[in-house]
Write a structure and sequence with these properties.
This protein is mainly alpha-helical. The protein has five helices and no strands. The protein is globular, with a radius of gyration of 16 Å. The termini are far apart. It holds the Pfam family COQ7.
Length: 149
C-alpha cells in the first residue's frame, strides 16, 4: 500500500509540473523559449503517463487535484511569487525540479527491490536533472536568444 501512495504522490507531482509549464508556455513569445518549454511539457507528459499506467496496473483510481490546479499552484508558490520575469520563472523552475529530483532519489532507494520500476524512475529523474540544468544555466546568463518573456 505504501508504494501505491508514493505512485499517487508522484503522479500529482508530475501533473503539477506539466500544468505549470503548460500555463507558462502561453505567455512566452520567444521561439527558443517556446521550443524549450514544449520539450519539457513532452517529458512531463511522459512522466504523467508512466504513473497513470502503473496505477492502472494496480487497479487504482487516478488521483485528481481537489480545488483545481490553479489553487494548488497558488498555495505552492505563495501569493508574492512573480513569475513574469525570466529570472523568477527560472528560479521557480529550478526549485520545482530540485524538489522532484530529491523525491526521485528517495523513491529510487525505497524501490531497490523493484528493478522493473527503477529503470523508469531513473529515466524520469534524469529528465528532471536536464530541466534543472537548463534553468540554472539560463538563470546565470543573459543570452541573446532569451528575452524576458
Amino acid at each position: 500500500m505504501e508504494l501505491i501512495l508514493r505512485l499517487k504522490e508522484f503522479y500529482l507531482l508530475e501533473l503539477l509540473q506539466l500544468k505549470m509549464y503548460q500555463s507558462q508556455l502561453g505567455s512566452l513569445q520567444d521561439e527558443y523559449l517556446r521550443a524549450v518549454y514544449e520539450r519539457m511539457i513532452q517529458s512531463e507528459r511522459r512522466h504523467v503517463t508512466f504513473y497513470e499506467q502503473l496505477l492502472m496496473e494496480h487497479q487504482q483510481k487516478i488521483p485528481s487535484i481537489p480545488g483545481g490546479v490553479t489553487s494548488l499552484v497558488g498555495m505552492f508558490l505563495g501569493e508574492a511569487a512573480d513569475i513574469t520575469s525570466a529570472k523568477n520563472r527560472y528560479k521557480l523552475g529550478a526549485a520545482v525540479e530540485n524538489k522532484a529530483i530529491e523525491m526521485y532519489r528517495a523513491l529510487i532507494l525505497e524501490t531497490a527491490d523493484r528493478p522493473d520500476l527503477q529503470k523508469g524512475l531513473w529515466h524520469n529523474m534524469i529528465d528532471e536533472e536536464f530541466h534543472l540544468l537548463w534553468f540554472k544555466d539560463n538563470q546565470k546568463q543573459a543570452t541573446t536568444l532569451v528575452k524576458s518573456t
